[in-house]
Amino acid sequence: MPQIIPIKDLKNTSEISDLCHSTSEPVFITKNGYGDMVIMSIDTFEGISNKMNMYQSLINSEQQIKEGKVRDAREALNTVRNKYDL
């Protein structure tokens, strides 16, 4: 379940840091009852960034397949073997 805290609680930086590290989800900050910011631990941020990069790579791959930019795996491996004398 997402953590939601009011902006006035940001005064307690040590507690906020502990909260961010105790969950693998972002912590949502509200201002006057409305969403204002999101904070998270570095580990959570890196995990989300890695997933986003993977999803973008999959989207790019699917686009290349649609455009016909594909090669037979055996041909590709033979090209690499010949290039590097393997």
From TrEMBL:
Gene3D superfamilies: YefM-like domain (3.40.1620.10). It holds the Pfam family PhdYeFM_antitox. InterPro entries: Antitoxin_Phd/YefM (IPR006442), YefM-like_sf (IPR036165). SUPFAM superfamilies: YefM-like. Belongs to the phD/YefM antitoxin family. Antitoxin component of a type II toxin-antitoxin (TA) system. This is Antitoxin. It comes from Lachnoanaerobaculum gingivalis.
